[in-house]
TrEMBL record:
This is Melibiose/raffinose/stachyose import permease protein MelD. It is a multi-pass membrane protein. Gene3D superfamilies: MetI-like. Its main location: membrane. CDD domains: TM_PBP2. It comes from Methylobacterium frigidaeris. The chain crosses the membrane at residues 12-37, 75-96, 108-125, 157-178, 213-234, 263-283. Pfam families: BPD_transp_1. GO terms for biological process: transmembrane transport. GO terms for cellular component: plasma membrane. Keywords: Cell membrane, Membrane, Transmembrane, Transmembrane helix, Transport. It is found in: Cell membrane.
Amino acid sequence: MSTPTKGRRFNGLPLIGPSVTVLLIWMIVPLVMTVWFSLQRYNLLDPTVTGFAGIDNYEFLVTDPDFWASLTNTLLLVGSVLVITVVGGTLLAVLFDQPFPGRNLARLFAIAPFFVMPTVAALIWKNLMMHPIYGVFGAVARAFGLPAVDWFADHPLLSVILIVSWEWLPFALLILLTAVQSLDREQLEAARMDGAGAVAQFVYIVLPHLSRAISVVVMIETIFLLTVFAEIYVTTAGGPGNATTNLAFLIYARALLQYDVGGASAGGVVAIVLANIVAFFLVRTIARRLEV
């Protein structure tokens, strides 16, 4: 029995070998080049700045206040969006699971923002919603006799958080609504017959059932939220100052605004390390939940 198995494995190698090789080259070559440039003095505006830099680029990066500000903004952005999307997605999933007139149309409208491109979403919120003169929020504030808020000047990071949350809330809703619909209705009916109210059913039956789906939402969203760029570029360009600069925008600014390829590559390596650390713990946490 062992010989045919080995033969099948051996015969399959020529078939998967080319695709695996291309995939490895596609992943490894950019990573190796990034690490290499992070160890070099390489400035696009000054060709005389060359040579091996060692860890100088990393030392300059971690001693730069902008790096720690961008790291803080990244954590605030990721954490805030996760809280808003998970809590809002859970509540909306329970709501849209209830029968009411026009439910299918409401689901469609609720999920639609997920298919809007980040650049378009940022432009919509910047010019149609949050603009202090022409925006909807400003019009509503003036209707109640309140002064209009210049969101991107007074609350820049909060504005970006709201935009990104609007984009990712439909994703959380879609996953969590699917999970809610898979809940055994006999459990809810039994709990209702035992005198459990709506809140008790939600806390002791619905939430435990959604724990795995919530873990998946957190993992997928975290991976993508660490690389948010378009929304910041279109709305605030990282400002005012560095108020909305996250790691992705900091790397962009170093590479294409300051032309410091070595420093930008060092930032990219640090971002890769941080992303892999976060992914490692998230995968372990989700794996433990799936084993239960």
